[in-house]
């Protein structure tokens, strides 16, 4: 099975079946134990609303494991769900996508937690490589393909040629950082405290990287706690304000793209003028992001189809043709 173990979502692909599970990477356990009460969507609903006896948290931070035990519990739960709760017999082979900036220790944590959760064989592949394969880029050709994979915790920018990564930059900025930026902005400007989940909803509803006249008129009602009086309150937040809140985060991503382009060998750079840049990952769905990157770099930019599932589809393709893509896996 192929797993995209993301900061925001975990997606599982099983050979010959396609994508069988797409759930938020959230797990709720009873406090002080590792007894899983809920994982995925049900647990995400609990975030920030739990009593003391239940802990709901996201065990992944910045694309890597922040809490080993909880990640293992979550993986085990998801493997059980995929196999309809037949537990004793199942020991799947797994390939897991990890960020390109991952350290050896962090990589060990991923493989160990997968083995603890019951896998018999674990290999890792770097996410931009998997995303490029999943987006249908010609990775085995001797020409440059550029992929920008914007996830929840990290954004990966890579130039790929001949089944391996030539230049790569991993920035620990992604969709979560955008949510936090909105939360901070509302707190600063309106003295209103909102949660990250509300921040995410605002981003999805009216967030943008580049404003257009149509977007500028949109607004949304935001509910939260007033920091001065301490009571719940509602404010009206407009699209230009959200755009202002996101400017720094988006600039960091554009900057990462620019740095990668500066370090690309000349021959590959000339290929990129024709092939352009492909965006994948949930963050690429932010309105106007492709246009902004295109404006800043002067290259054609497009969003891959099904950007949320590029990585897991790529890992799935690697699973099906292991001999062809063997070089793409990490050691």
From TrEMBL:
One of its GO terms (molecular function) is ATP binding. ATP binds at residues 7-9, 152-154, 200-203, 282-285. It holds the Pfam family MreB_Mbl. Signal peptide: none annotated. The keyword Transcription regulation does not apply. It is found in: Cytoplasm. Gene3D superfamilies: 3.30.420.40. One of its GO terms (biological process) is regulation of cell shape. Keywords: ATP-binding, Cell shape, Cytoplasm, Nucleotide-binding. One of its GO terms (cellular component) is cytoplasm. InterPro entries: ATPase_NBD, MreB, MreB_MamK-like. Forms membrane-associated dynamic filaments that are essential for cell shape determination. Acts by regulating cell wall synthesis and cell elongation, and thus cell shape. A feedback loop between cell geometry and MreB localization may maintain elongated cell shape by targeting cell wall growth to regions of negative cell wall curvature. Belongs to the FtsA/MreB family. Forms polymers. This is Cell shape-determining protein MreB. The gene is mreB.
